[in-house]
Amino acid sequence: MKETLKKLGPGFLFAGAAIGVSHLVQSTRAGADFGFALLWALVLINLVKYPFFEFGPRYASATGESLLKGYEKMGKGVLIAYFIITFATMFTIQTAVTIVTAGIASSLFGGDSTIWTAVIIGICFVILMVGRYKVLDSLMKVIVIGLTLSTVLAVSLAFQKVESISFAQVIPNDAVSLGFLIAFMGWMPAPLDISIWQSIWTVEKKKLDPEITLKQSRFDFNVGYVATTILAIGFVALGALIMFNSGTQFSSNGTQFANQLVAMYTSSLGDWAKVIIGVAALTTMFSTTLTTLDASPRVMHRLSEIFAKRTINKGYLMWLLVLVFGTLGIFFFFISEMGLLIKVATILSFLTAPFYAILNYGLISGKHTPESARPSRAYRMYSLISILILIGFSIWYLYTIAG
After folding, report:
1. How many domains, in total, are found in the chain?
2. What CATH number did the domain enclosing 327 receive?
3. Nearest Cα to 126, choosing from 294, 269, 331, 353?
4. Which one of 24, 32, 282, 371 has the fewest CB atoms closer than 10 angstroms to its CB?
5. Which of 161-170, 205-214, 323-332, 365-374 has the lowest mean pLDDT?
6. Domain enclosing residue 111, as ranges
7. Would you list the DSSP string of 89-151?
8. Model-level pTM greater than 0.70?
């Protein structure tokens, strides 16, 4: 068991990055607003996105290089587009996840959420500077396992308090509900550009353990992906069992939502449950804050080296500092525009999903990937159908907005 856990790593980092706003906020809201009626959407989108996330560690394990290097072989324009999209969204996304984390910490331990924001960013910065990938690798295993156990316990307790449950599935037919459905599916389990982070983490893991095989790498990813799916279902269940038909309106403000969330759980289950729910919520958002703070600078550092065609000393530290100060700057000076910024970032991430899916499919199926690592014919067919579904959702989303 110990040896198996030691071999795992990037899959848990994927889970840590994915299990965040999409799970704690959107999955819980889906359960609170629709009960179990949107479980079909959750399961479907996880199946549709699976191949394109899996292609990240598959390519990295087979070639020893990240998807970014593969994209470079497909043309520099691809890298430029990715650089622009990432730079346009990374500060807003980091600020959003940090604010929610700070709100939960404030609810659990008291104190001002502004102070907690700075403290959490500082703690994450120290963790990344002290141990880099090795600490991140070990810490995320503890966080994800602890979160899974906490959530399973919380759901089990909630089921005992409900007399009747409906699992009837529905497709929303009004504009507001359709908009939520598209956003919910767009961020579940995470934006597709995280596949690039996953490939970089896989390369880093192979540096620590060069004997890791392609089969082990895929198993590692599958463990993380299944964990994200189970936890998403868990948060939908918590929202459905505790909040559905409660008559409570959630705040659109991230910090207020976090405080409302913990308070609602404890008022329904009892004050004794505050620690269980609080730990589950806090570990969820802290893991997301930590992994996103590591991944964006790591990716931008790699991109900078590719563009400059040379090694850039302390490039990771430079981009890490840029993200830290940029995040704090947005928090302190543009917090009133946070809703608009998050909406823009969400739309960009959702609409670029087919772009990343097509890129990852083309790279893993083409000449730049060793033949032994390329997907089978059935897997390629599954991937192509998934691409068509993602394009369909994007068109549906644009049609909904236009309507």
Report:
1. 1
2. 1.20.1740.10
3. 294
4. 371
5. 205-214
6. 2-402
7. HHHHHHHHHHHHHHHHHHHHH-S-HHHHHHHHHHHHHHHHHHHHHHHHHHHHHHHHHHHHHHH
8. yes
